[in-house]
Amino acid sequence: MNLKIRSFCSWSGGKDSCLSLAHALRQGCDVRVLLSMLAEDGQHSRSHGLEKELLRAQASALGIPIEFSPAAWDQYEACFLARLISFKEQNIEAGIFGAIDIEENRQWVEKVCQEAGLAAILPLWKKDRRSLLFEFINLGFRAVMVAVKSELLEESRLGRSLDLTMIEEFQRLGIDASGENGEYHTFVYDGPLFRHRVIYQAGGILKRDGYSFLELTP
User: Which are the contacts of 151, defined by CB distance < 8 A and separation ≥ 6?
Assistant: First the structure.
């Protein structure tokens, strides 16, 4: 990787995007901005259901600016590509992504980056899923579960810390440790990249599209 390559980081607020950011920074990337895709309401993240202001507080704690782009699913790629083209015009050279080993994900990020004239950086690619989760926890990152696939995990896990005990429970239940297949999602609120802990409050539980989401507010 070229040192000090000007980059943006595709940001969900969860563990994989956070760990990919940590890897990229360690490898010398100059991360200028985080990009979080929002649902059509423009107030919640598309994948994790996190409030926009909570993501803004997270970015502030990281000391990296964040930009948002709302998009319906059928417009997602067009909206994402438009933002990447805008980054290219700002002399950003690459995008950082948290994909681990699903080939379809890799092909998609490389496709949109190529169309925008950017390089795609995947620091976690082909690393062992379980090992990545151990690394995330052992580095000192702190995260809570904010979404679970209802048919696989109970709502009672929402709000629980992602720790070594949880990894053992996942293995016993036959759940992928990294949740790469969408089994669960997390929110990272502290760790070695953070200037300070993100303070949040847990609210109610929302259900949609086969998932249960924990409402968090800053």
Answer: 210
pLDDT tens, residue by residue, 70-106? 998 889 999 999 999 999 999 999 999 999 999 999 9
- H/E/C letters for each residue in the chain? CCCCCEEEEECCCCHHHHHHHHHHHHCCCEEEEEEEEECCCCCEECCCCCEHHHHHHHHHHHCCCEEEEECCHHHHHHHHHHHHHHHHHCCCCEEECCCCCCHHHHHHHHHHHHHHCCEEECCCCCCCHHHHHHHHHHCCCEEEEEEEECCCCCHHHCCCECCHHHHHHHHHHCCCCCCCCCCEEEEEEECCCCCCCCCCEEEEEEEECCEEEEEEEC
| CATH class entry, domain 129-217 | alpha beta
pLDDT, tens digit, 9 for 90 and up, residues 118-170: 999 999 999 999 899 999 999 999 999 999 998 999 999 999 999 998 888 88
Nearest to 112 by CA among 150, 90, 86: 86
What are the backbone angles phi and psi of residue 203, rounded to the nearest 5°? -115, -135
Homologous superfamily (CATH) of 6-121 is: HUPs (3.40.50.620)
How far is 15 from 185, CA to CA, in rounded Å? Answer: 8
Q: How far apart are CA 116 and CA 186, in angstroms?
A: 29
Domain boundary assignment for the chain? 6-121, 129-217
pTM above the 0.85 mark? yes
- CB atoms under 10 Å from CB of 175, counted, come to 19
